[in-house]
Amino acid sequence: MKDKNHPEPVPSASQVVVLPFLAALEGLIKDQTTSTFRLTMHRVATWESQGHFQQLCTYLGSGPKDQGTVGRMLPVTTGIIGYAFEHKKIARTKRYASNELLLADLAEDMKANRETGQPEQTPPSYLAIPFVGSENEVILVLYADCREFNFFANNQLVNKLAAMCRSLASLFDWLQESEALPTIQNFPLEKGTPIKSAPTVYRRLQELVEIPVPRFKAVTSFNYEIAIP
Amino acid sequence: MTCNFDRAVEIEQTFKIADGVYLVGSLETGVTVYKQQLRAHNLVWALSVCSAAAVPKSIAIVGGGITGLTVASCVLALFPDSEATLLEKRWELCSLQLGCDTRWLHPKIYDWPEYGSRAQSAQLPVLDWTAGRASDVARNIVQKFGAFCEKNQARLRIIVGLRSIQIRASDRHIEWMGCKMSSDGTFSYDNHPEGASEKFDVIIAAPGYSLEANTPLYWQNEQLSQPVLDGGQQNYLVSGYGDGAIVDLCRLTISRFRQDTILKDLFGPALKETEEEVLNALQTERTSYHDLLSRRLEPITRPAAIALAKRIRRDTNVIMHLSGRNANRSIDVAFEHQSSFLNKLLFYLLYKCGAFAPNFDTLEDALRSKGIDDSSLVRRHGSSPEEYVRRLFVDPENVEPQFASIRHRQHAEKLWRLGAFPPPGVRP
Lengths: 229, 428
Hints:
By secondary structure, chain A is of the alpha+beta class. Chain A has four helices and eleven strands.
């Protein structure tokens, strides 16, 4: 029997500082598609000196919000977020000439990953934007998927999303350096060696994009908590 | 899986004092609420892995403090088909901290300068909490325990106000006289006490420590950190040099002292760099703490002492009684003790500020010569947990031989499998 992966806690303040940003992205994406989509943020957190992804907040998007997956920990080689983590670049599903071609590649990728699901059940569009720290380490990754074909192959949209992420990174730097909101502070997390397992990215499907990633100057880990100044 | 099993067996052994009888934390030093909770998670996870083939039907948890509640919640989370009985001698759960408004609890600050030590929340999967007054932390923990109770009330009994309890380790038998408390999360009392005598498959003792003798208890509300309101100066004598003594020394000597903000107060924007420097020094230097603080870390401690000197209380006059059990004759004893590095640092800075007068007489002589009465004595000598634990058992000869092999072996690290603990009401 496979061990269940129940969530480990994430401070409420860490969730709430990214949720309004994700809600803004949700609004932007809703304006572009009627298909179902999800987005969330993962942070890199340490467990027994090993770094993992940890889902930072609920999925936002077209579906209902659910705290059930908040805090689940994943190896840093998981799916497209693992791909973005490894290369410190934006990763997305590349443009396909037809849905059939995409499904054919997806079927191959799923087979390579030993996944048993149906390609048709899998979202045809994924996006991951890593937030990189001053020591070139990944601190956060924005994750999004969408049921619309070629949705994130749209450069204009990805540029817009990346620009928003860059502004968010710069805002967090300012918050950290200025201590403008002293009752919410980013308490440093333990540093750990990234824990890896077999990469589960869809290698045929996903591509890296040469769009500048959001970079932190002052933020070295992501752990906002309520504090007494 | 094998890896998990081997690790679980190893962990289980560090808590085992007899077949099916376990003791959490009481024989450890440098104990904090958070570390006790880590141990509780580790033990219950290890038991769940080790006993997968023969799941215990009945589990007794002795002690309704934060550790006991964490053990009980972990048991409810990982043993969905077992019955749990929680036994607490007082009338309230978390009774030490409940109503304690003068103590501050922080999950990891005693690990400073380790990374993450300043984080305010414990980030535990079971009974998580955030730094605050002890009373607020206790309330938060009891409330979270209530969520586990509510989802598992049919298989949980809570007995409080124990008039007697006797544990026989040889056959895991407990006799008690106490009152039932509702296990639906409301914690209301049932009518009258009743006696019972039962055998359990597993007993987990989380009794904590015996209370200190002859002193205002550590968890009792007092006014040490409050300014002297008549405008005069009050003499105090703090006896001891462990964490409890140094915290009270800080409260008595540093104006507006708070455990959670003192580092920021001392180092300001340079805190992060200071932290890295201190961590690096601790990892690389093989010298005494006193030497480390006065030499290698002098560029850090000197300006900090200057800053601290401006905050030394004028309304108190504190004598630090350091002779201890061994008739110590040097201030160095406070740096050799197993207190946290943070408290060693604060002690050193206060020493450099001349914020207290060290004293090495016997306690009686010190009190007499300084004219200090019991109301101004803060005695932090710790307790005698071993004897306290021993007295819980009617057959101590069956548990005591194991004390030596578990003492200081219960690691306060997250050793359970990542994602092992489900939230209340969800099967593992």
